[in-house]
Amino acid sequence: MNTAALWLAVVGLGLYHGLNPAMGWPLAVANGMAERRAGAVFATVLPLGGGHAMAIAVALAPFAWLGWYLEWSRAIRTGAGALVLLFGLYKLARPRHPRMLARIPPGRLAWWSFLMATAHGAGLMLVPFMLGLCAAPAPGMAAGAGAAATGHAGLMGQLARANLDTALLVTAVHALASMLAGLGMAWLVYRHLGLRFLRRTWFDLDAVWGASLALAGAAGIALAW
Amino acid sequence: MLNTLRPDPTFHPSARLAMEAPAELIAYTVLLSPDRSRPDALAVVDVDPQSAAYGTVIHRLVMPHSGDEFHHFGWNACSSVLSPLSGHAFLQRRYLVIPGIRSSRIYIVDTQPDPRAPVLVKTIEPDELLRKTGYSRPHTVHCGPEGIYISTLGGAGPDGTQGPPGVFVMDCENFEILGRWEIERGPQKLHYDFWWNLPRDYMVSSEWGLPPQFESGIVAEDLLAGKYGHAVHFWNLRERRHVQTIDLGANHQMALEVRPAHDPAREYGFLGVVVDTANLEGSIWTWYRENGRFRIRKSATIPAESADAGRLPALLKGFGAVPPLVTDIDLSLDDRFLYVACWGTGELRQYDVTDPMKPTLAGSVRVGGIARRTAHPNGRTVGGGPQMTEISRDGRRVYFTNSLYSSWDDQFYPDGVPGVQLMCKVGAGGGIELDPAFCVDFGPHYRAHQIRLQGGDCSTDSFCYPSA
Fold first, then answer.
1. Could you list the residue ranges forming a coiled coil in this record (chain B) (predicted)?
2. Reported confidence tier of residue A201, pLDDT bands at 50, 70, 90
3. Per-residue pLDDT at A138 exceeds 50
């Protein structure tokens, strides 16, 4: 898979997460309606997006950091893929929803969004694609001669930094796509479609979500080989 | 329980959408054997005017034990499942959770596949409830965050006085008792009803009395000494913490039913107080939140009616008057009409509460009553008076039963309270009228208490989106 396709996957997953009601856009609708002003819809999406971004970053950062073990690259990517695949299969086998999350006070939206995304494995879903992007040669990294001058440790340090930068960039791009999709849905329902739409279109995505994780994991393993 | 791919069609994001749902065709009514000689039962009542069986019992599910005394009950899941915080709206309104207030036993009844012939699928024995919660005498059932919330009236020990009563949580899929709800209960020592505003994250609870104060009948000395509950409690719902108590004054005995506005954008609700020991009047209180603090105001009173002592039971002879005894209140889904059951005087009142601080009387019907004993329009005499009230989702029909609590029935209505379920039709702009054609007779051996309507009603569902 080339770099453009990987970035497309990052953006696509962002839109997918944002459109999933479980990630929070109905909260933006409810807050807009309660305060009877459109501004409240926008204000709600910000903490939701922030929490989601944190959940993605927390999952991606450790894998990005591991990525500097270049010689273990294949094993790490296969292992990460297998982890995501297994988490997806677990979600499919045990569809119970984490009801504990309903206990978080409605005022702590960013915290709710963080925990909800983490419980769903939203960040894990991105790991295989991010690792694909980490392996792509960053500017100034590919030249072996230049690296030799700074020594092995220097190269590794550069790689680790570059991989963390990639993780943060993936997080930002994904979260932005997710926020825009969620905001779009919230706005459409708040302004045009009304609550009837919510009742008509709220499908249980748990199985689809589990399958998406399994698929992402399988893709990660395939990309490593 | 089977999960669904779509939310149950009887779940509604807002109260206004619930009002537009199809009319109810079936009502479920709990029946109790007052002398505990027979097992209690769940009656399925046909309320479809097009049906040949309209206004009759089409099925009776008799329980395996006797002595439960059915009181209040509820659904495993309701519109609160659509809370945007749950992120998962795929449960079914399918199971009825029916506690025995005297036995502390809890029955789980499945209304599928045939809603007209529900079946018993699980029984939770009292020792399990006691072991896991330290509570007894389970009472009000609401579906909420994390599962089913059930309030209790008693603590541990044979008479339920060891430790305060409270609320416990039950899993809404496998019906396992998860444990106590309260983390910090503050000064709360008594319990009766509870309800909440889910998006605003607060709960309101009320007080009746401890089991020795109600199980063998009303204790007149306790009543006159102001020892029944007279306070209302406010809680932080998600933090499970008591935040405020408002004492109504010891003369306001038995602060029972709590009815918050259905529209969660409205931060007020109503509370019914059974009797004022100073003058025997009943009262309606309106609570509201102002700058983060809860306040409450007595917003309507219903005076006692003088009566010939010869028509009064021993308990009331000395007073020469009948107290209205406000034992139930219910609020229509549009938050416009509050129905007030005056079980003593045999009156059902309809108040227009468009201005919640100034309820205005909009309609009234009379049936039964301690001294009046008003007959139903179909000619039948009715023991007891209007009691547990349930409003149809569209607000056009108000169903009610006539029994309060077995031992109290006998004190106030010594001639007996044979179980009936009656119905009022509501005028488009208000006003109520008893339907002469609707009079469900449960026979002489059973009394009737709470009613639940298939698809939800006005005292079960909580909504997470404003009606705007």
1. none
2. confident
3. no
Distances (CA, A) of B414 to B142, B325, B347, B420: 33, 16, 19, 17
Dist CA A123 CA A127 (whole Å): 7
State residue A10 phi and psi, 5-degree precision.
Answer: -60, -45
Count Cα neighbours of A59 within 13 Å in the Cβ-side half-sphere. 27
Q: Label residue A161 by pLDDT band (50, 70, 90).
A: confident
pLDDT given for residue A65 in this prediction? 82
Structure confidence at residue A73 (pLDDT)? 78
Domain regions of chain B by residue span: 2-453
**A36-42 mean pLDDT:** 92
- The count of residues in chain B is 468
Q: How far is B144 from chain A (nearest CA, A)?
A: 9
Residues in B touching A97 (Cβ below 8 Å): 86-88, 90
Q: A195–B465: do the CB atoms touch at under 8 Å?
A: yes
Q: Is there a contact between B165 and B152 (Cβ–Cβ < 8 Å)? A: yes
Q: Is the ipTM of this complex over 0.90?
A: no
Interchain contact, A102 vs B145, CB within 8 Å = yes
Q: Does domain B2-453 have CATH number 3.40.640.10?
A: no
Please state whether the predicted TM-score (pTM) of the whole model is above 0.90. yes
Are residues B100 and B106 in contact, defined by beta-carbon separation less than 8 angstroms?
yes
Contact B77, B90 (CB under 8 A): no
| Cβ distance of A106 and B88 shorter than 8 Å | no
Low-confidence stretches of chain B (pLDDT beneath 70): 1-3, 87
The confidence band for A151, taking pLDDT boundaries of 50, 70 and 90, is low
In sequence order, the β-bridge partners of residue B100 are: B70
Q: Please state, in angstroms and as integers, the Cα–Cα distance from residue B37 to each residue in B42, B103, B177, following that order.
A: 16, 14, 29
- Is residue B25 within 8 A of residue B39, CB to CB? The reply is no
d(CA B17, CA B461): 12
Residue B393 near residue B333 (C-beta atoms within 8 A): yes
pLDDT of residue A200: 76
Contact A21 B84 (CB under 8 A): yes
> What CA–CA distance (Å, rounded) separates B460 from A21?
25
pLDDT reported for residue A153: 62
Taking only residues 50 to 109 of chain A, the set having a beta carbon closer than 8 angstroms to any beta carbon of chain B reads: 95-97, 99-107
Give whole-number Cα distances, B17 to A36, A196, B22, B91, B317, in Å: 18, 8, 11, 19, 49
Per cent of chain A over pLDDT 70 is 87
pLDDT one-digit tens code per residue, A53-68:
999 999 999 888 887 6
- A173, A144, A147: which is closest to A15 by C-alpha? A173
Largest CA distance in chain B: 63
How high is the pLDDT of residue A146? 43
Looking at residue B2, its pLDDT comes to 53
**According to the model, what pLDDT value does residue A140 have?**
46
Instruction: State whether B17 and A196 contact (CB < 8 Å).
Output: yes
